[in-house]
């Protein structure tokens, strides 16, 4: 009996869970005997519940398949057309199924919540159906302007969101769509359950992941009124990474008293903001549909640290509140901002002076918030207490020594050794029993010493001074030059420059000739003439540019030859000729028997051949005897003439 009761309870529970209700078998009939009249099927409703749905199933026993399913529009009654029954002579099974409620399921189209793509793997996060059940999904994807590929997958009931992993080709743009349907469970109304596919989701472009950090360009305008205007710009990612749009997320830390960064989102590739004189940090990432780029951090340093307080800035703010921010830190070397920076909006400078280390330089900024804009009103170094420097200047040396001057150089005292604000350097110059005193500004590292004496030894001492007093001295000795000693440094400089210029000229000339950088200087076109005396060569070998000529006295053959006086054998200045005399004792007729015996050199006159020249008369010579055996040479109009007078009885020219 217990087993029977248990089976009965389980059966009732399953029936109620499936919402199936019992009915009678359908009765199908015609109202007339007409062959073309349709059938009417009726059955009894045995359950009083409302919202019942009746489905009439028609089964072909020969083909073992359903011919049709008819959803009844009226309660407990259905009209069957002959076309739905098929051949009337064939055996057909008809039954009715009654259910409470709608057992046909159709989900809404899925929504893609998030996509993440990395190394060719696309992770898709989808929303859950309204009943929070698992579902069957169909996904299709393709490259742009190509054929679709598709696959199906199932999700589980136990998850909050639905997930799927899709493998894609790297660095390629894709398009995807999804749809889903309910998963049918087994129960007594199994045959009446229908799950329909949802509509396709909107087609989504899938870009490639952004691999590189944005490259940021920062332009800072001149600081003014406690603020600095900053203009940021950056380049867009690659085209395959920018499909579907790119957003840029900036995080700014420009108010030192707030440790959290302000977050800004923009789709532009530029951003303008204002920051204080203190340090500011900005980070940016580029985000697309499948992820974001690595984060890019930029650091905008504070304005250069001042060595002294600016007198134009107010020294303090009387009240501290949420609109003020005091920032301070230890500045031991005077330049490097430490990693640890203190900030507070509840205290002022006077409150921290007694808390910081003595004799150590600190730096502070005082910022205020005015009209929703941050400004710096004070930036200044400070000491809680001061004393004299620990050490004197280092590397003190003397240069450019002359007989009356010298230049002393040194290195500044490091900030860590100053122990206070350095006011100036004190210089003592001692020599010949006298001491001179000079003060040099703290920002100087050299000093010209004048009015020294030649050949004298001097001692120079230098120390730094703060408001607490002078520090230790640094000393150096030197001796001036004598007046007679060498050249001055100005003369030495000029001499060195001249020597270097000369060497450069020589080197350039040699290099130009070796490398043939300059064209060769053309040689003058001059025919080479060889000058030789008749004794050394035959007359026939002479070249045309060099000639000999003999001036002959023309006489009438019928007349007796007269002796020619030595006066007639003078140089014919007006004709540019040379007269030669020759003794001829053997030839009584006055002819020239041997021209080769004439003692002469070669004289350039190309027009001597075939000429017979007459001696001009008269010749005036005051002393003919003094010219005997004498030779005169003359150069005129490019010709060389020689006159030789020989004493003889008969003269031939």
Structural class: mainly beta
Largest sheet: 5 strands, antiparallel
The end-to-end distance, rounded to whole angstroms, is 185 Å
- Quickly count the helices: 6
Q: Could you list the spans in which at least 5 consecutive residues all have pLDDT below 50?
A: 1-18, 564-629, 648-653
Shape: elongated
Number of strands: 40
The rounded Rg comes to 63 Å
Mean pLDDT: 76
What portion of residues is helical? Answer: under 10%
Strand content: 35-45%
What do you see in this structure?
The chain is mostly beta strands and 653 residues long. Helices cover 9% and strands 35% of the residues. The protein is built from six helices and 40 strands. The strands form twelve sheets. Strands 19, 20, 22, 23 and 24 form a five-stranded antiparallel β-sheet that branches. Strands 31, 32, 34, 35 and 36 form a five-stranded antiparallel β-sheet that branches. A four-stranded antiparallel β-sheet has the order 1-7-4-5. Residues 1-18, 564-629 and 648-653 have low confidence and may be disordered. Residues 1-17 form the signal peptide.
């Amino acid at each position: 009996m217990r087993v029977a009761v248990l089976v009965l309870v389980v059966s009732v529970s399953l029936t109620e869970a499936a919402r199936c209700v019992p009915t009678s078998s359908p009765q199908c009939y015609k109202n007339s005997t007409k062959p073309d009249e349709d059938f009417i099927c009726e059955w009894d409703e045995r359950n009083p519940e409302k919202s019942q749905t009746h489905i009439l199933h028609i089964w072909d026993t020969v083909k073992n398949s359903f011919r049709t399913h008819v959803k009844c529009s009226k309660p407990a009654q259905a009209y069957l057309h002959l076309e739905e029954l098929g051949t009337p002579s064939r055996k057909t099974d008809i039954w009715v199924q009654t259910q409470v409620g709608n057992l046909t399921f159709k989900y809404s189209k899925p929504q893609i919540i998030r996509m993440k793509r990395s190394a060719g793997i696309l992770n898709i996060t989808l929303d859950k159906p309204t009943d929070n059940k698992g579902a069957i999904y169909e996904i299709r994807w393709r490259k742009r302007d190509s054929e679709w590929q598709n696959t199906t997958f199932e999700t589980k009931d136990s998850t909050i969101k639905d997930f799927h992993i899709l493998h894609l080709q790297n660095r390629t743009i894709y398009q995807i769509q999804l749809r889903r349907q309910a998963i049918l469970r087994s129960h007594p109304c199994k045959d009446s359950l229908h799950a329909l596919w949802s509509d396709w989701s909107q087609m989504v472009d899938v870009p490639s992941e952004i691999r590189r950090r944005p490259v940021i360009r920062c332009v800072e305008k001149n600081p003014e009124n406690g603020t600095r205007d900053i203009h940021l710009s950056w380049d867009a990612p690659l085209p395959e990474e920018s499909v579907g749009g790119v957003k840029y997320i900036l995080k700014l830390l420009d108010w030192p008293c707030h440790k959290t960064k302000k977050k800004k989102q923009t789709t532009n590739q530029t951003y303008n903001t204002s920051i204080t004189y203190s340090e500011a940090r900005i980070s940016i990432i580029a985000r697309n549909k499948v992820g974001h780029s690595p984060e890019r951090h930029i650091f905008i340093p504070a304005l250069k640290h001042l060595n002294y307080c600016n007198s134009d800035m107010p020294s303090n703010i009387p009240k501290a509140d949420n609109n003020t921010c005091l920032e301070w830190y230890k500045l031991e070397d005077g330049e490097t901002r430490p990693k640890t920076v203190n900030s507070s909006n509840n205290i002022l400078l006077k409150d921290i002076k007694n808390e910081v280390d003595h004799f150590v330089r600190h730096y502070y900024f005082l910022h205020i918030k005015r009209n929703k804009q941050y400004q710096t009103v004070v930036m200044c170094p400070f000491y809680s207490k001061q004393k004299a420097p620990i050490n004197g200047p280092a590397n003190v040396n003397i240069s450019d020594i002359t007989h009356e001057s010298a230049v002393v150089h040194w290195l500044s005292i490091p900030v860590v050794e100053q122990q206070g604000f350095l006011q100036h350097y004190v210089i003592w110059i001692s020599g010949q029993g006298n001491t001179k005193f000079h003060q040099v500004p703290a920002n100087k590292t050299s000093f010209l010493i004048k009015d020294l004496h030649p050949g004298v030894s001097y001692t120079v001492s230098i120390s730094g001074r703060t408001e607490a007093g002078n520090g230790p001295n640094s000393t150096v000795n030197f001796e001036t030059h004598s007046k007679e000693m060498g050249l001055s440094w100005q003369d030495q400089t000029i001499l060195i420059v001249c020597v270097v210029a000369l060497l450069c000229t020589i080197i350039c000339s040699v290099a130009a000739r070796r490398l043939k950088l300059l064209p060769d200087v053309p040689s003058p076109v001059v025919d080479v003439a060889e000058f030789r005396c008749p004794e050394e060569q035959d007359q026939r070998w002479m070249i045309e540019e060099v000639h000999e000529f003999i001036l002959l006295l023309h006489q009438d053959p019928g007349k007796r030859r007269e002796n020619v006086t030595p006066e007639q054998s003078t140089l014919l200045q007006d004709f540019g000729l040379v007269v030669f005399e020759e003794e001829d004792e053997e030839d009584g007729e006055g002819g020239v028997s041997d021209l080769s015996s004439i003692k002469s050199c070669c004289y350039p006159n190309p027009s001597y051949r075939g000429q017979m020249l007459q001696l001009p008369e008269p010749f005036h010579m005051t002393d003919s005897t003094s010219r005997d055996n004498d030779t005169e040479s003359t150069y005129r109009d490019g010709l060389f003439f020689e006159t030789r007078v020989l004493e003889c009885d008969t003269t031939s020219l």
